[in-house]
């Protein structure tokens, strides 16, 4: 094969020299390279320092936008707004103001939760626990909790899961008790519910 027709595609000597030069400059960076790195670092630092959050009317508008989509407890709303706000104190003041004007209401959130949890077959203990996680005082719906027929609620749930038959088998009885306890019902309501006959 004639070398003139097939010139070398890669100049290995030149490539080797280039790699050695790059290795040297990585081990001994020039002043210019160091300056460039420092400039990049300071630029990144400036960007994080200048990161601004919402405040004033923009924060207020965002709070309204959040509340139009979903009801939030006071504690939840503070946490949500604080993620984007310039000042946590401003958020707390704003949320207090929104609560005073009834745009935000823990009472409404508690009532919505009570209704939703009852539909899902949850008992009073689970409902109180759900309210606690949202930092809502269960006293806000104390009257509704008291007025609810928890025996009927537990009975309907038991019927959906196990049917109307009142079992005498202690193992099945224990299973039903555990199921209703897990759902948040009190023992008194559970015993009445699993002993209740269809025509009672």
Structure explained in plain terms:
It comes from Acinetobacter pragensis. This is Regulatory protein RecX. It is a single chain. The termini are far apart. The protein folds into 3 domains: 56-100; 105-148; 149-200, Arc Repressor Mutant, subunit A (Orthogonal Bundle), CATH 1.10.10. The protein is built from 11 helices and no strands. The longest helix is centred in the N-terminal third of the chain and has 19 residues, at 31-49. With 200 residues, it is an all-alpha fold.
Q: What tags apply to this protein structure?
A:
mainly alpha, single chain, 200 residues
Helix content percent band: 55-70%
CATH architecture type of the largest domain: Orthogonal Bundle
Low-confidence stretches: 42-51
Q: Within the CATH hierarchy, at the fold level, what is the topology of the largest domain?
A: Arc Repressor Mutant, subunit A
Which CATH top level class of the largest domain fits?
A: Mainly Alpha
Shape: flat
Helix/strand/pairing class, anyone?
A: mainly alpha
Q: Count up the domains.
A: 3
Biggest pleated-sheet summary: none
N-to-C span = 105 Å
Order of helices and strands: HHHHHHHHHHH
- Tell me what portion of residues adopts beta-strand conformation: under 5%
Biased composition (Basic and acidic residues): 33-52
Protein name: Regulatory protein RecX
Organism: Acinetobacter pragensis
Domain RecX second three-helical: 105-143
SSE blueprint and pairings:
Elements: H1 12-27, H2 31-49, H3 56-69, H4 74-82, H5 88-100, H6 106-119, H7 124-133, H8 142-147, H9 150-162, H10 170-182, H11 187-195
């Amino acid at each position: 094969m004639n070398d003139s027709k097939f010139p070398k595609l890669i100049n290995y000597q030149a490539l080797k020299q280039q790699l050695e030069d790059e290795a040297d400059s990585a081990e001994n960076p020039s002043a210019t390279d160091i300056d460039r790195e420092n400039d990049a670092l300071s630029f990144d630092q400036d960007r994080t320092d200048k990161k601004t959050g919402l405040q004033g009317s923009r924060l207020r508008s965002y709070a309204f936008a959040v509340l139009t989509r979903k009801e939030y407890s006071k504690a939840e709303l503070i946490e949500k707004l604080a993620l984007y706000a310039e000042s946590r104190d401003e958020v707390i003041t704003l949320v207090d103001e929104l609560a005073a004007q009834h745009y935000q209401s823990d009472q409404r959130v508690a009532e919505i939760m009570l209704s939703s949890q009852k539909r899902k077959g949850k008992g009073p203990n689970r409902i109180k626990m759900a309210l606690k996680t949202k930092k809502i005082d269960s006293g806000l719906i104390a009257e509704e909790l008291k007025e609810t027929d928890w025996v009927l609620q537990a009975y309907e749930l038991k019927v959906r899961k196990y049917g109307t038959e009142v079992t005498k088998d202690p193992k099945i009885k224990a299973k039903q008790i555990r199921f209703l306890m897990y759902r948040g019902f009190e023992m008194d309501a559970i015993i009445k519910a699993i002993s209740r006959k269809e025509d009672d």
